[in-house]
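Q: Please design a sequence for this.
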């Protein structure tokens, strides 16, 4: 594996031709990490420019590649970059927000409560990738569905706040790096399996018509051309139906922030 280092003071597009040419999948864990007291809005102002530089380079050197964005705030960055791809005449469905970490956390927390292995748990997480927009659907996993209803709200909140929990535990010295690396590898392996001809599912955040919002996270099937199918959200219980409305209300605002950025580019 050849490593490439770029000078951040110069445009990425001028430095990444050799690195990106011929790529089928590009994972972008870029930007500054969140620090205590920093909101995802604060992050957006810094990270949108970083993401745009890398996405512009992908558009030039590997325009057909699937681009997995691990750049916070994902809820705003993905719409911004997808709309920029549209402006370039490229397939905006190649721009995908990696939300696998939310699933990994939900699976782990359910396993802890039930005494089962996380490998046997697969909690769908829909909506977005920040705060209340992170919506684990515990009722759709056979193991998670055995957890008493009165314990679900706290489990829901812990899944939402998993990133903040790590940031605070590290006391300003970083964010969820190891678990994010694992989750990025999980996402990447599933996309690659699809590209290689084996249809493979993963939950992720992308342009969607599943709800009235233009971007949403739900189950996606990857195939040889990238996104093969974006699936619906399935049956929700009454708690989850209420949470969906809460998630959509917040997600709508964060999507709009990304669309506003793209309109200025």
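A: Design:
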């Amino acid at each position: 594996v050849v490593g490439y280092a770029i000078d951040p003071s110069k445009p990425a597009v001028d430095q990444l031709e050799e690195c990106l040419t011929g790529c089928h999948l590009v994972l972008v864990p870029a930007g500054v990490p969140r620090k205590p007291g920093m909101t995802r809005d604060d992050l957006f102002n810094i990270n949108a420019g970083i993401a745009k530089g890398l996405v512009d380079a992908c558009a030039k050197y590997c325009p057909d590649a699937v681009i997995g964005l691990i750049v916070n705030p994902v809820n705003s960055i993905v719409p911004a970059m997808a709309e920029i791809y549209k402006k370039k005449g490229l397939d905006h469905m190649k721009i995908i927000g990696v939300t696998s970490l939310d699933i990994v956390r939900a699976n782990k927390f359910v396993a802890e409560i039930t005494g089962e292995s996380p490998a046997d748990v697969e909690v769908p997480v829909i909506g977005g990738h920040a705060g209340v927009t992170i919506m684990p659907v515990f009722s759709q996993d056979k193991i998670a569905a055995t957890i008493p209803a009165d314990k679900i709200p706290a489990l829901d909140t812990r899944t939402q706040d998993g990133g903040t929990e790590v940031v605070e535990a590290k006391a300003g010295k970083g964010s969820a790096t190891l678990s994010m690396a694992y989750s990025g590898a999980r996402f990447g392996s599933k996309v690659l399996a699809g590209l290689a001809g084996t249809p493979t599912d993963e939950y992720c955040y992308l342009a969607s018509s599943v709800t009235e919002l233009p971007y949403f996270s739900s189950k996606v099937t990857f195939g040889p051309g990238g996104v093969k199918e974006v699936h619906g959200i399935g049956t929700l219980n009454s708690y989850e139906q209420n949470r969906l409305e809460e998630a959509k209300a917040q997600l709508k605002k964060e999507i709009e922030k990304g669309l506003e950025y793209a309109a200025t580019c």
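Q: Thanks. Anything notable?
A: The first strand starts at residue 25 and ends at 28. The radius of gyration is 18 Å.
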